[in-house]
């Protein structure tokens, strides 16, 4: 069973990395530099529900570092890690509260990710003026979080076949 779990985690890591790469190729600009769809988050939400926090954070960090080294930069890794940590903590707390379903947890994660990245950007550029992007990012994080959560929820229907 441990081999099956390791293989599945490797496949989900590859899936998340492919989604990261696809996401980087999609022209998505709504007035905020660096805005993305958050496609890899659906894999992380899926793992959070399938196995739990330890496996989901491991795959998330590995995905960020590997895709950053392959397709991005250290600057991109820093922004992604900041958003991912805040997003993951938020999703874990919301999931444990059992108030929202998979889609709601994903929405919270998308919004938290955007807030985390904005905070890092405000710190680096040393201005709070960057917070003018917040309304657009909250809407985008909610919409993309819902779509990613919907897909992750659909993937959950098959999770009983995958659980090791």
Query: What is the alpha-carbon Rg in Å?
Result: 15 Å
Beta-strand percentage?
under 5%
How many β-strands, per DSSP? 0
Oligomer: single chain
Shape descriptor: globular
Q: Could you report the average pLDDT, rounded to the nearest whole number? A: 87
How is the main sheet built?
A: none
H and E string: HHHHHHH
**End-to-end distance:** 5 Å
**Considering DSSP H and I runs of 4 or more, what fraction of the residues is helical?**
over 70%
Number of discrete helical segments? 7
The helix/strand class is mainly alpha
Name the poorly predicted regions.
Answer: none
Give structural notes:
The chain is mostly helical. The chain contains seven helices and no strands. The chain has helices at 2-25, 40-50, 53-71, 74-97, 102-125, 134-156, 159-162. The relative contact order is 0.15.
Q: In brief, what are we looking at here?
A:
This protein is an all-alpha fold.
Outline the fold blueprint.
Blueprint: H1 2-25, H2 40-50, H3 53-71, H4 74-97, H5 102-125, H6 134-156, H7 159-162
Helix pairs in contact: 1-2, 1-3, 2-3, 2-5, 2-6, 3-4, 4-5, 5-6
Features:
7 helices, 164 residues, single chain, 0% strand, mainly alpha
């Amino acid at each position: 069973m441990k081999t099956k779990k390791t293989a599945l985690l490797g496949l989900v890591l590859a899936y998340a990395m492919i989604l990261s790469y696809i996401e980087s190729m999609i022209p998505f600009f709504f007035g905020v530099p660096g805005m993305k769809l958050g496609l890899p988050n659906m894999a992380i939400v899926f793992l959070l529900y399938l196995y739990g926090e330890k496996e989901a954070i491991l795959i998330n960090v590995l995905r960020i570092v590997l895709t950053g080294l392959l397709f991005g930069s250290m600057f991109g890794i820093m922004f992604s890690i900041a958003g991912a940590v805040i997003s993951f903590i938020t999703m874990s707390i919301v999931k444990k509260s059992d108030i929202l379903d998979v889609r709601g947890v994903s929405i919270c994660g998308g919004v938290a990710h955007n807030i985390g990245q904005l905070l890092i950007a405000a710190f680096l550029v040393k201005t709070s003026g960057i917070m003018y992007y917040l309304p657009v990012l909250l809407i985008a994080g909610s919409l993309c979080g819902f779509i990613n959560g919907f897909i992750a929820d659909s993937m959950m229907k098959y999770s009983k076949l995958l659980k090791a």
